[in-house]
Amino acid sequence: MGFFILYQLIIFAVKYNRINIIGLGNVLYGDEGFGVAALNSMQESATFPDSVHFIDGGTQGIYLLDYIESCDAVIVFDALIPLDYDRQVYVYRNEELPAFIHRKMSSHQMGFSEMLGIAKLHGKMPKEIVLIGVPPKDLELNIGLSPEISLLLPLAVEEGTAIVNRWLQEGVEIHD
Amino acid sequence: MAKKIVVDPIPRIEGHLRIEAKLNDGNVIEDAYSSGTMWRGIEVILKGRDPRDAWAFAERICGVCTTVHALASVRCVEDALGIEVPANARIIRNLMNATQVTQDHLVHFYHLHALDWVDVVSALKADPKQASVIAQSISSWPKSSVGYFKDLQQRLVGFVESGQLGIFSNGYWGHAAYKLPPEVNLIAVAHYLEALDFQKEIVKIHTIFGGKNPHPNYLVGGMACAIDPNKDTAINIERLSMIKKIIDDTNTFIDQVYIPDLLAIAGYYKGWLYGGGLGNYLSYGDFPETNLADFKTLLWPRGAILNKDLTTVIDVDPRDASQVTEEVSHSWYTYSKGDAKGLHPWQGETTPKYTGPKPPFQHLDTDKKYSWLKTPRWKNHPMEVGPLARVLIAYAKGDPMIKDTVGLVLSKLEVGPEALFSTLGRTAARGIECKQTAGFMRHYYDQLVANIKTGDYRTFNSDRWDPSTWPAECKGFGYTEAPRGSLGHWIHIKDQKIQEYQIVVPSTWNASPRDANGNSGAYEAALKGTPMINPEQPLEILRTVHSFDPCLACASHLFDMNGNEITSVKIV
Questions:
Q1: Across residues A84-93, what is the average pLDDT?
Q2: Which of B4, B143, B452, B520 has the smallest number of CB atoms closer than 10 Å to its CB?
């Protein structure tokens, strides 16, 4: 049994050695802080192994590059503007994703999509990138999400948790 | 025909910046107006909160400089409550601050500013052999072989052809204002990418001391990290040696990459000495060697220079109600005792009142109120803050390290000190300062190790943590010199809650609108007199605005005098 667990851990390390969960947004501007709120909620509710890391990215741009390049799979929570308002929670994967992240975050103006471009240029893109977000309702100066967005928060966290669990499982299953 | 250029907002976090400039017939900027077009109301959010929590909110107002606001905030509350932090906390804060400035300057030079001087597309035409010869002649940095540059050039060609690389998509490639030979462009692009990779390492110091990064933990009364050389969970020998390695690597990168690049690039632009502007410089000072209140021990000296007069550094007291003031004669606020009367931040008021045009609009009415930024003044003078101000003040005060480095830079470029009063001077000052703060990182590391060796592990002073020990009412001032310049937080605590909180950020000094006397702010003054080669590609404006490292991003539109837009350009 002990041997079996060890075996699983080794295989796991091969597939997704490190998973990063990043929350983006400014908590001072209502729903703009959705990503950070989702991150905090997931951190409180989910139990993951030490290979899963939670990062409150705030509005940092270029400074988050390391958190993209240093992991094998990443989930980004953020407020976003979808093409069609046909869902409550939006989930985009890998190549679908840069088009939806327009955030110009810092004076250094390195947006998240530019950062993905750089990770690509460096040859350090994670195997999996997933963006989970909702369109904001209220971006006025105040702390806390609007009632509508608060209702969507658990759904977004549930999506994220399910994806991470799948990744964790996959790491084992693939070699079964 | 005279023309008008408008520099307009883009991002949504730090607030927006818009600059309107009038061009004369010879395409020289005759006048410029700087406007913050988004209200930031952190003062309102902090009212009524626990002062011990203020730093955690304050650090969210800027997308880049989270730690500087946290630092100014805890210093401000400690000042109000009379808390002295333990030596370890002071040293760790200094080390984190030096780390922040060093990383920020490095990133600014390569990733925000370099492409105002470096033509990426020209680099595709470079001869890698020649690039290698030049690189090896200016530095001993090992990544300089022919093969290295050849490989990079090929990767670049692939990237430019695929149209994928957003970071290089905004340039005015081929603009006549670019002066570097293709080989120097190629070297600079190589270092752009190397710096991007390297900067990630520097802030790991914040993670070690602050528990996490971004948004490391600060604490009123000290720092939240434990020190114990023999404990796994504390700042121990292993973590200290990690820090030592990062500091050594940082110094190497700055000495062998940043400074040689800066000198090589500046050498081609020393004929372009526009953008000097106000000639008034202010610094609160920073890096206390003892108690923060004893500003005589600050490694970055406090002071002010007026009218480019380097023979006199005037004393500054940000607590003095007649020195640092903010008025709102051209800002969308109203003051209870008249908008033109400057108020010290302890008497500060934040009552927004928008009277500008309804967006979208073409022009602001710059004769009236035209900005969400208030108008800070020092003894009624508009002031420039930031690296150039700090370097000039240290230079005028005879700081040996700054005197030597400035002297070296000037002699290498074969220019006199007057060349410092320019956009290029501002950019050079940032490099000089980065070298200095990388040295500070070493200095504070050594201090920390020496202090720990004495057996002092204390990082937190809990004497005044409990609000029942506080006076019923008190006021405090906290300051730091952020990468972009002087940052001040002023607090008024009453009945254990924040009664008033006022923040004057560096970009408010630099991007301020006119005051009641009609005096321009620093950006406004710096843009005046700049000739534009091609107003449809305002590269010269980008250079000067970027040289201040604004914490507001902007875009530019070009207008003729009739208000017709010629072109629209993002300044990112």
A1: 88
A2: B143
CA–CA min distance A100, chain B (Å): 14
Catalytic residue among B35, B144, B486, B507: B507
For residue B285, CA distances in Å to B102, B282, B323 come to: 16, 9, 16
The pLDDT score that the predictor gives to residue B164 is: 59
Choosing from B34, B35, B65, B326, which is the catalytic residue? B65
Q: Are strands B497-504 and B485-494 parallel, antiparallel or unpaired?
A: antiparallel
Tell me the shortest Cα–Cα distance from A69 to chain B, in angstroms. 10
- Return the pLDDT at B19: 80
Peptide bond into B214 cis (omega under 30): yes
Q: Which residue, among B159, B265, B142, has the nearest Cα to B194 in the 3D structure?
A: B142
**Token code pair at residue B32:** 């410029």
Reference B105, options B376, B308, B304, B391; nearest CA is B391
Decide: helix, strand or coil at residue A45: helix
Residues in B touching A121 (Cβ below 8 Å): 155, 159, 165, 193
CB B380 within 8 A of CB B342: yes
What gap in Å lies between CA B458 and CA B222, rounded to an integer? 9
What total of structural domains would you count in chain A? Answer: 1
Regions of chain B with pLDDT less than 70? 1-16, 39-40, 63-64, 162-170, 552-572
Residue B49 annotated in active site: no
- Angle (nearest 5°) at CA B319 between B334 and B436: 110
Say if residue A142 is exposed, middle or buried (CB neighbours under 10 Å; 0-12, 13-18, 19+). Answer: middle
Query: Which among B164, B193, B214 has CB closest to A60?
Result: B214
Across the interface, which of A110, A117, A141 has its CB nearest the CB of B111? A110
Question: Which CATH number belongs to the domain containing residue A100 in this structure?
Answer: 3.40.50.1450
For residue A77, the enclosing domain spans: 2-173
CB pairs under 8 A between A and B: 103
Give the integer Cα–Cα distance in Å for B146 and B150.
6
Query: Which residues lie across from B16 on neighbouring strands?
Result: B553
B128-178 pLDDT, tens digit each: 999 999 999 999 999 999 999 999 999 888 877 766 555 566 678 899 999
Spatial distance between the Cα atoms of B509 and B503, rounded to a whole number of angstroms:
11
Q: Rounded to the nearest 10 degrees, how much is the dihedral formed by the CA atoms of B405, B407, B410, B415?
A: 170
- The reply to whether B474 belongs to the active site is no
**Cα-Cα end-to-end distance for chain B:** 28
